[in-house]
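debug: dumping io for the single-chain case to check the tokenizer round-trip. Nothing else runs in this session.
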Amino acid sequence: MADSKIPIAIAYGDGIGPEIMAATLHVLDEAGAPLELHQIEIGEKVYLKGISTGIEPSSWDIIRHTKAFLKAPITTPQGGGFKSLNVTVRTTMGLYANVRPCVAYAPFVRTKHPSMDVVIVRENEEDLYAGIEYRQSAEVCKSLKIISRPGSEKIIRYAFEYARHYGRKKVTCFVKDNILKISDGLFHKIFDEIAREYPDIQNEHWIVDIGAAKLADTPEIFDVIVMPNLYGDILSDVAAQISGSVGLAGSANIGDRGAMFEAIHGSAPRRAGQNVANPSGLLLASIMLLIHVGETATAERIHNAWLSTLEEGIHTYDIFKEGVSKVKVGTREFASAVAKNLGKKPQNLPVVSYQGSKKFATLSGPRVIPDVKRQLVGVDVFLQSTDTAEALLKHAAAHAWEPLKLHMISNRGARVWPEGHPETSCVDQWRLRFMHKDKTSTVTHAEIFKMLHEITEHGYDIIALENLYLFDGTPGFSAPEG
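debug: decoded output
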């Protein structure tokens, strides 16, 4: 790899990917970006070779030994057995922070929110996107929502450091901890802890449903929003669309040892090969890449040229509006217009300046494991059964589980015993909670194994287990509803 150029990995992707990548690379080349391109193959063709991850094994070394990865959107084939390439790259390379600026470009791009300028910082490695799923019975599937202290600390601290680095005034946390008190509750708790370290930055918390409503209605009240993975994925698309178009949004995936840049939209195969796709999302992602590798002057020239092109009314079909737009152009023509505007600055939209901006460093520190006393006090046993709650209770009550005792039966989280209600709708997955008869006394694994053996001896099908622990005397498990 030549010393004079910065090596980056690129992938043309599927659908509209090759077209918008070619357009983006044309602008980068015309701007004199000192990049050395190392192409890898990803996506549909790789999937169809029988590689479930959608990426050739040899490509990992190229990604690992370049400074950044610029990726066009890909198509995941229909049917089972195929993993999300995006999730695979993010988790494999430790790209824990997904950064998605959502900016309005009024009056040149139609929006109801002309002053919108929101950055969504999305946790990128865990939550439901861990993809740990099971079909447990004929009627029930389960997905595990993973929220960890290290994962939450990294992304929340990144959001505050991003705000400080770019002169943002406020960081907002969106979670659903009124319901998910343990998992989302941990994310909120850590947000409050870290916010105290940044007294110069305002902080606030919203329950995600009302927060989403306010984001859609009055996005100008937000600045930087930090969220767990799934909420961040959904609401960054919403935010991008209400700012003007999903097609205008790029994103950065940042980790301690790598970075990937991409448009937030998909491969849109129905638009492929027609020279109509808007390359702006990938182009703006490439600007984020240039900033990441320290090429701030080139990033600034391209960004201001792109803004000038919008101002001139040279628009692709997705943002074209009669009376505002001047010329409807294709993918290649839009890129050519941006290239011709290199050196220009917008007259109405804010001029972008990255001069003097240092590379934004990631901040993962050494992992610190909390010193917590953990005490095993019981177990939730999940059964597959078409029995009624009454029949299950009859069998359970007829047996002495010493020193364990049946404390609860629930179905889909609703308590059906004790104090159940006849209206509760049940499926074929049941949860039986066994705890020491003294409730807070420690249970041994041997006592649990003995009880599980006795359950199977009664002919019941155990499909999952969850041990119940106290952490410093506080239950680490939820109570059933009802």
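debug: round-trip ok. The longest strand covers residues 374-384.
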